[in-house]
Amino acid sequence: MHILILGAAGMVGRKLTDRLLADGRLGSRDITRMTLQDVVAPARPPHASIAMSTVTSDLAEPGQAAALVAHRPEVIFHLAAIVSGEAEADFDKGYRINLDGTRHLIDAIRAEGDDYHPRLVFTSSIAVFGVPFPEKIGDEFLSAPLTSYGTQKAICELLIADYTRKGFFDGVGIRLPTICVRPGKPNKAASGFFSNIIREPLAGQEAVLPVGDDVMHWHASPRSAVGFLIHAATMDTAAIGPRRSLSMPGLAATVGEQIAALQRVAGKGVVARIKREPDPTIIGIVSGWPRNFATDRALKLGFTTAEQSFDDIIRIHIEDELGGTFAR
Amino acid sequence: MHILILGAAGMVGRKLTDRLLADGRLGSRDITRMTLQDVVAPARPPHASIAMSTVTSDLAEPGQAAALVAHRPEVIFHLAAIVSGEAEADFDKGYRINLDGTRHLIDAIRAEGDDYHPRLVFTSSIAVFGVPFPEKIGDEFLSAPLTSYGTQKAICELLIADYTRKGFFDGVGIRLPTICVRPGKPNKAASGFFSNIIREPLAGQEAVLPVGDDVMHWHASPRSAVGFLIHAATMDTAAIGPRRSLSMPGLAATVGEQIAALQRVAGKGVVARIKREPDPTIIGIVSGWPRNFATDRALKLGFTTAEQSFDDIIRIHIEDELGGTFAR
């Protein structure tokens, strides 16, 4: 089986690649070939036991999606996107990559003809939802995004449902929770602090908390995100029905619950590295974000998280990123 | 004030043109110029007291939208679309006109620059909703279309909300109920019978009823549809908020209630011209259509129908289309 990963150089793409290489198979089938694509050169995993190709290209350029699809991968993971902040700052770039790039891809798949019907797994986002919303957002709540990024994701969800309905491919969209703990360096994303306040103290560094302890948000570990992608690629899609995009399960936790979990897992000394510096701008942005979901459809369709509690999310970070240890 | 009507040759476009000409003003401002565009030549109304231009063009062709927008109409009514059945039969044509045509239009408005900020009234459709849905579809119910036409309309709603949020224009999308009584000849649309069973008997002709009396549907008269368009063009949009598309008020009536109303308004002899010929295909199609709505937001924002009952819908048809009389 040939697997194509678009946006393979990103954090989720790298973790998905590692998992697929470790498994050697996807569902019941051996992986015989993988193609890793991104707009920056994807790293070629060392000692890969599977035939690997890397492609550096821009999906929004004419012909680039068609060139990738011409090899007829049986499964395509479409993770490529301009992130929320950049899509908001550069309107044209966001639409060009996040909307037109996806259209090039799905039209290229369609153009391959009736004998080609790959599984397409698309990473959508909870940014398709905008305030006001209920305390828990259910499966029948409208997509009313308040960013261009969320708009582009919501449009792609509609396109993937329609193209799937017409039989051009077998599409599944998954709306990922905020990934926590996100590995790497602190970044300037407004959501960065949810991970920063766990990752940095565990690494012996101070972290800034710009919001109050009562802020609730919707989290899943990187391990869960990869699990969702694998399940979306292997599940029996006959059970989904025509609504092809699903809010993924996650864990609703307040910042206070995050910190209490950190104290249970790592101790008071680690928690003391969190510095409270309220930032009205970030408080304002975060107040418009979804806090909690009722993901009945995804649960019924077999999507499961790797964690039962925020303590688990922290333990997964220590296991997967820190080799089982941390800075006490 | 200069008004541009896209899709002016259609039934709603012609009725809107007639109403604007009769009023001579839109809201508090005199109409000084009207441009009627369609892919087939729009009829030039005789004896028009307002400067009129007609344009025959295809919005999906590069440059055509820009040429229309270059005259900087203050209000643009965007009624142009490939209808549901054709968009389903010709996938490429539907996306080209209904999605790409609209994108050309909104990008052309944006390209005019910061000093141009027209009101854009977009006719969406209740086809953005797909089964399963509640008995009454409310304002927070998801768009999950089951046709390419509904998908294209739902995508345009998202685009118009995002472009409005970014300040490129002042957009309002209105989801029209099924227009009843639709004037003209019987057509092959699956929804045609809702109008046929009223219009044809009133004209002395037989009409075929392919579904059972218990089928409920969501109706508004052509007069109401024009009223919604005028209100969308003149209302204070500050009250709408970021969710720029609204399900319009209408009247939920079963076929049995339609027929009872026809008997009250026109008598038993007219009703006797309805022939019951159940058609399993049409029964199947219609079973997936919305039946009833809770249009709280639209009502609160001042959208009102011209009718209180299905009797009124029939009377409006007799007044507006039949000169006050019918075939007894």
From TrEMBL, chains A, B:
CDD domains listed in its UniProt record: Gne_like_SDR_e (cd05238)
Domain called NAD-dependent epimerase/dehydratase: residue spans: 3-212
Pfam families: Epimerase
Keywords: Carbohydrate metabolism, NADP
NCBIfam families listed in its UniProt record: ErythonDh
Protein known as: Nucleoside-diphosphate-sugar epimerase
